[in-house]
Write a structure and sequence with these properties.
10 strands; 2 domains; alpha+beta
């Protein structure tokens, strides 16, 4: 699971027989002695992977009585590299062969550390731009506000096209102003999105 976080993420299903990495029928699941196997996995990862990785588990009952599957999803992590075995071994996903993981070399580890710094830098840059936009349009930063960040911290590919984003914001702006004529929705090309109360100026 640490190799998933260090690479491109992945899904592990406990309860399926696999030979040379290929799943084999019948897919019956296994008997879990723990009442909450997902919690057990999370505790094991929390104690043995550094820094800690976020993971999601789902317990799926099998059609075979008393058996089930445990699905574990790990996303690519912006905090990579994640090490195991007393925080000294860094594994990544490898292509081909029966062994799907390999030890990362120094060059790859340096690349992960650089990526981590770049991710944090991009978030900070975006946040500063958002505050500057709010100040430029007279949005009081001392007033109660909600900061909402949506999306992965490190995307490996395009999630949605710019055209779709623009279409969504335009439609939202139209509906918003129809319901709140005194409100105005503003956005920054980089993605900042805010609303403010319009003031009528009479000369």
């Amino acid at each position: 699971m640490s190799s998933f976080a260090n690479s491109y993420g992945g899904i592990l299903i406990i309860g399926i027989n696999a030979s040379a990495g290929e799943p084999e029928e019948p897919f019956e699941g296994i008997v879990f002695p723990e009442k909450e196997p997902g919690l057990t996995v999370q505790n094991l990862c929390r104690a043995n992977i550094f820094p800690e990785i976020p993971l999601y588990t789902s317990f799926v009952p099998s059609r075979t009585p008393d058996k089930a599957f445990l699905v574990i999803q790990v996303n690519e992590s912006p905090k990579a590299p994640h090490a195991i075995e007393n925080s000294t071994q860094v594994y990544v996903r490898a292509e081909g062969g029966t062994e799907k993981t390999s030890l990362a070399n120094v060059t790859l580890i340096e690349r992960m550390l650089l990526r981590r710094r770049e991710v944090l830098g991009r978030w900070e840059e975006f946040y500063v731009e958002s505050k500057s936009l709010a100040e430029a349009v007279g949005f009081g930063l001392d007033a109660p506000r909600l900061e909402l960040r949506i999306g992965p911290q490190y995307a490996t590919g395009m999630i949605i096209t710019r055209e779709k984003v623009s279409e969504f914001l335009s439609e939202h702006n139209r509906r918003y102003r129809a319901g709140f004529p005194q409100q105005e929705v503003l956005r920054h090309p980089a993605g900042a999105f805010l609303s403010r109360r319009r003031t009528e100026i009479v000369t």
